[in-house]
């Protein structure tokens, strides 16, 4: 199957000699995937000549991204400052980490929620420290609050009262009820401080890659699938060159944390979309991560669908089924059946009778 | 070839197929919709616009889709889909054309950051532009529609496009949206103006659009220099007044009413400072359109 035009261009494998209708399509795919600013950077770096109209859109997207990065930097420093004052060690994850550590994926990337990792024992204190800075728990209702706090690897999103920025406070990188029980303390223990941003810490290189892979692999929505693949691609290339013995360490760490499968899929799709990254001597070892044939082929199909830009020009028959299967699968991975079934029934009930659900919550005692 | 020369069946098949491509101001839109109400509105309001070849590079691909499932038959809906993503909440199918106009505005104000975009009507005479920012319900669109039927050129009734490079104001020249009593006021004031069918029961009440004149459309590549910033307010039965407003107050207000001021950063602030410096700023109260037109004529001769 041919990958989307945008994917080929961003991965450095496309032909930039495009007709006007093709440019219009690429722009649409990039906007829909939140990758227009990324496209702008790629075009700039490669000094591609683009139609004037496309140039204006790329410059505009670049403006939006630079403003978003600036806002993210300010928010991250505020959050880190608040937690330091409270004496709580904190590690920045994902977008915030790439930006503050000045890593390649931050180039032209848009930022959503700010993801932070603290020790499980520090969660409550961290939440109240953030409350002091104006980040309050969003009103999700009592059931959803309990769902997050009991079963998830993060507490419900905290929203800033005036600026609207959203913080996801994590104690590890995958739900404790899921098949991937990653020890948050092991991640915190191995984190690194960022020289350029005083007080900021990020995961060590192997863990950063593994987090990105686990996130991609367990997600149910894939709205940012292609962006996540580019993150992985950039990280692998960067650390592969800058960190001594990065690749063997990555394979070792995956085994140690029990996340071999997500790593296998991540590597497979990065190479499928953007070309080889693995050093040849390690290819045999990496192949040992391979899941059995049937689930492997199924996942290859599902992820191939999910990682295409969600643009009409990329739609193919069977996409709906694939996306639904991925959604179901993400829940399956998240919890065992005896927890999952009551949860899904409860959610269905709440969707069907939103008024009754909220009244019930209002009347109930506060958990 | 203009849309007026296109038979309705050809227009409908363009809208149902690869899209009808047309240019409004600096932007090229590809419009697609299976809804007859959209085809009817586009035919009436864009009659003097040229149809561009389907392979033209469009800035925005705007689709006003129907809804699936039961909604295909019962309480039919129209949805704005952009790059394959549903953007607003669905509206009744009968609101399809009004939704198209709002969708086109949204495309511009959320993407065209080569401009500082202010939520304001803007008109031109003798190369000089008057910007009319005002909250909804203040009579901004009514005044704009009146003035463009009385010697002023329509640049835009909603979005003032200020070029970030040099501060010039660019025309959009799209249909003017009128609400409720304004529709009858303008029909009476300018009997020769052409209107779309009225859309009933929208969130803003009754809405109709007024077709831009062919003469204004022909000058769509002529930008203007901002000369006045005038805050209009319709006040029934009040005497007409034009009072100067402090430039600093105008600046703050324009910044608040701009869609992308924060995004432009320091350059946006400098651009606005220059703009208010070049303009006379005033608060304007009126109750009768003919008196308002006379007052604006005096601005030019002064």
The averaged pLDDT of chain B comes out at 94
- Measure the end-to-end span of chain A: 51 Å
Please tell me what the overall shape of chain B is. Answer: globular
Content of β-strand of chain A: 5-15%
- Major sheet of chain B: size, sense and barrel closure? 8 strands, mixed
Report the count of strand segments of chain B. Answer: 18
Q: Provide the domain count of chain A.
A: 1
Q: Helical amount among residues of chain A, as a percent range? A: 55-70%
How many strand elements of chain A? 7
Most residues in contact: chain pair: A-B, 23 and 19 residues
User: Structural class of the helices, strands and pairings of chain B?
Assistant: alpha+beta
* Proportion in helices of chain B: 25-40%
Describe the overall structure.
The complex is a heterodimer of chains A (367) and B (302). Chain A has helices at residues 5-10, 20-32, 36-46, 52-85, 94-100, 123-132, 142-151, 184-189, 205-218, 225-242, 246-257, 260-274, 283-287, 293-306, 319-334, 337-352, 354-363; strands spanning 91-93, 114-117, 135-137, 158-160, 166-170, 192-193, 201-202. The relative contact order of chain A is 0.11. The longest helix of chain A is centred in the N-terminal third of the chain and has 34 residues, at 52-85. Helices cover 59% and strands 6% of the residues of chain A. Chain A is built from 17 helices and seven strands. In chain A, helix 2 crosses helix 3 and helix 4 (52-85) crosses helix 6 (123-132). Chain A has one domain. Helices cover 33% and strands 31% of the residues of chain B. Chain B has nine helices and 18 strands. In chain B, the strands form three sheets. In chain B, strands 8, 9, 10, 11, 12, 16, 17 and 18 form an eight-stranded mixed β-sheet that branches. In chain B, strands 1, 2, 3, 4, 5, 6 and 7 form a seven-stranded mixed β-sheet that branches. In chain B, a hairpin with a 2-residue loop joins strand 8 (115-125) and strand 9 (128-133). The mean pLDDT of chain B is 94. Classes of the chains: A mainly alpha (367), B alpha+beta (302).
């Amino acid at each position: 199957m041919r990958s989307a035009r945008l994917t080929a261009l961003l991965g450095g494998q496309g032909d930039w000699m495009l007709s006007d209708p093709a440019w219009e399509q690429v722009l649409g795919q990039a906007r829909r995937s939140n990758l227009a600013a990324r496209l702008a950077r790629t075009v700039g770096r490669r000094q591609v000549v683009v139609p004037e109209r496309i140039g204006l859109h790329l410059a505009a997207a670049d403006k939006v991204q630079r403003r978003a990065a600036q806002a993210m930097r300010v928010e991250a420093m505020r959050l880190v400052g608040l937690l330091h004052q409270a004496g709580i060690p904190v590690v920045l994850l994902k977008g915030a980490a790439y930006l503050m550590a000045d890593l390649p994926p931050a180039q032209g990337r848009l930022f959503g929620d700010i993801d932070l990792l603290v020790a499980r024992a520090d969660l409550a204190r961290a939440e109240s420290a953030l409350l002091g800075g104006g980040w309050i728990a969003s009103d999700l209702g009592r059931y959803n609050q309990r769902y997050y706090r009991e079963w998830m690897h993060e507490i419900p999103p905290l929203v800033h009262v005036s600026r609207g920025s959203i913080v996801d406070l994590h104690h590890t990188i995958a739900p404790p009820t899921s098949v991937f029980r990653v020890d948050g303390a092991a991640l915190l223990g191995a984190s690194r401080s960022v020289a350029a941003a005083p007080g900021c810490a990020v995961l060590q290189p192997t863990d950063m890659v593994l987090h990105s892979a686990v996130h991609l692999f367990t997600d149910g929505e894939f709205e940012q699938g292609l962006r996540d693949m580019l993150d992985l691609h950039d990280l692998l290339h960067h650390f592969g060159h800058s960190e001594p013995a990065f690749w063997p360490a990555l394979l070792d760490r995956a085994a140690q944390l029990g996340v071999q499968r997500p790593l296998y899929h991540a590597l497979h799709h990065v190479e499928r979309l953007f070309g080889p990254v693995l050093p040849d001597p390690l290819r045999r070892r990496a192949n040992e991560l391979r899941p059995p044939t049937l689930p492997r082929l199924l996942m290859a199909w599902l992820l191939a669908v999910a990682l295409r830009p969600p643009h009409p020009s990329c739609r193919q028959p069977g996409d709906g089924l694939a996306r639904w299967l991925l959604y179901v699968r993400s829940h399956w991975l998240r919890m065992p059946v005896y927890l999952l079934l009551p949860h899904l029934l409860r959610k269905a009930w709440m969707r069907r009778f939103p008024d009754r659900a909220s009244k019930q919550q209002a009347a109930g005692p506060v958990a | 070839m203009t849309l007026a020369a296109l038979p309705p069946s050809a227009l409908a098949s363009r809208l149902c197929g690869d899209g009808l491509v047309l240019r409004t101001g600096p932007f090229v839109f590809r419009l697609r919709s299976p809804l007859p109400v959209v085809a009817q509105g586009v035919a009436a309001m864009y009659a003097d616009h040229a149809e561009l070849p389907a392979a033209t590079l469009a800035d925005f691909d705007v689709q006003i889709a129907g809804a699936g499932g039961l909604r295909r038959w019962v309480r039919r809906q129209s949805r704005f889909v952009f790059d394959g993503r549903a953007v607003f909440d669905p509206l009744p199918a009968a609101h399809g054309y009004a939704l198209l106009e709002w969708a086109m505005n949204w495309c511009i104000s959320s993407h065209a950051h080569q401009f500082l975009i202010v939520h304001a009507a803007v008109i031109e005479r003798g190369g000089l532009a008057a910007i009319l920012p005002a909250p909804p319900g203040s009579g901004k669109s009514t005044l704009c529609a009146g003035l463009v039927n009385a010697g002023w050129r329509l640049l835009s009734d909603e979005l003032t496009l200020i070029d970030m490079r040099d501060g010039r104001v660019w025309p959009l020249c799209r249909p003017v949206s009128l609400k409720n009593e304004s529709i009858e006021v303008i029909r009476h004031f300018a009997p020769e103006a052409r209107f779309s069918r009225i859309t009933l029961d929208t969130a803003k009440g009754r809405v109709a659009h007024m077709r831009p004149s062919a003469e204004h459309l022909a000058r769509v590549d002529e930008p203007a220099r901002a000369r006045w910033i005038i805050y209009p307010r319709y006040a029934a039965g009040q005497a007409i007044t034009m009072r100067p407003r402090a430039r600093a107050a105008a600046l703050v207000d324009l910044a608040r009413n701009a869609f992308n001021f924060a995004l432009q950063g320091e350059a946006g602030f400098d651009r606005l400072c220059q703009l208010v410096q070049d303009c006379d700023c005033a608060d304007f109260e009126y109750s009768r359109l003919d008196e308002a037109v006379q007052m604006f004529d005096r601005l030019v001769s002064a």
